[in-house]
Structures are given as C-alpha cells and as structure tokens.
Amino acid sequence: MVSQKEYQANLFTADFLISDEDVEELTAQEDMDYFHICKALYVSPDLMAFKLFSMIQRGYRYNLPQDLNSTFLKS
Asked: How far is Cα 19 from Cα 66, in angstroms, rounded to an integer?
C-alpha cells in the first residue's frame, strides 16, 4: 500500500461504484466465480477486491483474493 490516503480513496471508489446489493446478488449465483462477477459489474478485479474488503469490514462474509494492488487507479 503506497499511502493511507490512496488506500482510503480506493475503498471510497469501490463503495461508490459497486453496490452491496449487486455483489450479494451475483455471489448468490452458483455459476459465478470472482472474475465473472468482476466482468458482470464492469469493474477491475483490484477494485472488486477493495469492495469485498469494505463489505467484510461491515460484517459480510467473503473471502478476499490475494495481493490487493493499491495503485490500480493511478493514471
């Protein structure tokens, strides 16, 4: 992680762009894996990982993929 501000920005972006309800709906489908969910939501795997981390912090039960890349939003 490069900085706390960047980390917080990534969490905010993930929560802003991806709804909890959409994640819950897609993860309930048995034929959906992590990358299919990312594709269905039109988000990068890195952003989705931040969304899952945010949801886990709020009490949802998900497994995070390994190696979160905090610099994926850099231009």
From this structure: 22
Kindly report, residue by residue over 19-47, the tens digit of the pLDDT.
999 999 998 998 888 899 999 999 999 99
Q: Are 45 and 37 in contact, with CB atoms under 8 Å apart?
A: no
Greatest extent of the chain over all pairs of C-alpha atoms, in Å:
36
CA 41 from chain centre, in angstroms, equals: 10
For 5, counting Cβ atoms within 10 Å of its Cβ (0-12 exposed, 13-18 middle, 19+ buried), the class is exposed
Distance CA 22, CA 9 (A): 21
45 with 35: CB under 8 angstroms?
yes
- The model carries a pTM of 0.78
DSSP assigned state of 71: T
